[in-house]
Amino acid sequence: MPLSNMDFEFYESEDPIWNPALMTIPIPGIRKMVNLASTMDDVIHLSIGQPDLPTPQNVINAGVEALQRGQTGYTMDAGLPELLESLAIYYGERYQRTLSPDNIMITTGATEALYLALTAVSAPGRHFIVPDPAFMLYSPLIRMNGGEVTEIPTRAENNHQLDPQEVIDAIEPHTYGIVLNSPSNPTGTVYPRETLEAIVEEAAYRGIQIISDEVYDHLIYDGKTYPSVLSCCSDLDHVMVVSSFSKTYSMAGMRIGWLIGSQGAIKKLRRYHMFTTTVANTPFQWAGVAALHGGNDFINHMLKEYTARRDRLVELVEQTPHMTGYVPEGAFYLFPSLPEGANGTNIALRLLKETGVCTIPGETFGSSCSNSLRLSYSTSMDNIEKAFERIIPWMEQQDFD
Ligand SMILES: Cc1ncc(COP(=O)(O)O)c(C=O)c1O
């Protein structure tokens, strides 16, 4: 397979120069598929992990104006004061929770916030609980720092809901952290308030940190109210909430995210942040201020668009032989399963080679779902229709017995 040689050299090299901890970083399944797709013509991507809608003009203007005003130096280490203030007000209004700017730190996307939170807590002898499937960063970052992970499997038949009792039962005396991600990448599942409350309450009682990745917190369909961990905890002593502008305002490349926690946690992590990236991108922190003050038109437009695509994708998956779907309530992914025992990686590769539709194999996101595929609907309705005009007849010809 024409994987770039870089992947193999970097990840599987025996070269003693590299810290063995790097071996915990898997070869990204997404890269494999996208690299292969880039060598082919006429590929339809259901593989995209970022919004396809254009960034709102007021956000772009604010970034450009910040550059023109000479806002090109470092900000304070916690972030641009105007953005910290705006976020504190925004979260206060959204979840009726009083936050001060000292509860927030601006990072280089949610990715840096996750990196800081997970690696600052993970250490040899410490145990963490992570849903499976999950966004592929969590477990490797924990393991890289010596921590061990218990993965809690979820299933398409159950809308990939997390059973809070299974999480609680997995807690051990040396458990230090539980990672939550709602809406989830790759499943689009939104955890109900009861699930979060049960886990958050038990974690607080046992002194365990909840690391909650909420980057899709505005991609919630069917008019539902989003249950954030921030609205389910009595204080911030045991929670670190991560989010960003990437998905909400189509700002993924602008790299502005944040971490919310107790003032003590933020104080500690600010020093770590200084040693990691110093500060986040200054002009685009101004773009973020404009995003928060720009009204809800963009978000409403985005929700309307993604809801229509989700509904159509759910119908098409239902019509596809051998695929079990469900109705995802958030994000822009559906994670259908194939028959038990099917090899999702082989299916994804064959699907790409034989039909030109690029999906992401389930095993990219964990060990319990190798018979699944991640389908992204961050692409036009037209592409979704065309993709299934190829997928359905191809699946009709497959025999999984
Ligand atoms: C669940 C999840 N968390 C975090 C990120 C990273 O977000 P950011 O662009 O803010 O670093 C992504 C990006 O795909 C994601 O899906």
Automatic annotation (TrEMBL):
UniProt similarity note: Belongs to the class-I pyridoxal-phosphate-dependent aminotransferase family.
EC number: 2.6.1.-
InterPro entries in the record: Aminotransferase_I/II_large (IPR004839), AspAT/PAT-like (IPR050596), NHTrfase_class1_PyrdxlP-BS (IPR004838), PyrdxlP-dep_Trfase (IPR015424), PyrdxlP-dep_Trfase_major (IPR015421), PyrdxlP-dep_Trfase_small (IPR015422)
Domain of life, per lineage: Bacteria
Pfam family, one: Aminotran_1_2
Biological process, per Gene Ontology: amino acid metabolic process
Keywords in alphabetical order: Aminotransferase, Pyridoxal phosphate, Transferase
GO molecular function terms attached to this record: pyridoxal phosphate binding; transaminase activity
Necessary cofactors: pyridoxal 5'-phosphate
Protein name: Aminotransferase
PROSITE patterns: AA_TRANSFER_CLASS_1
Domain Aminotransferase class I/classII large: 42-391
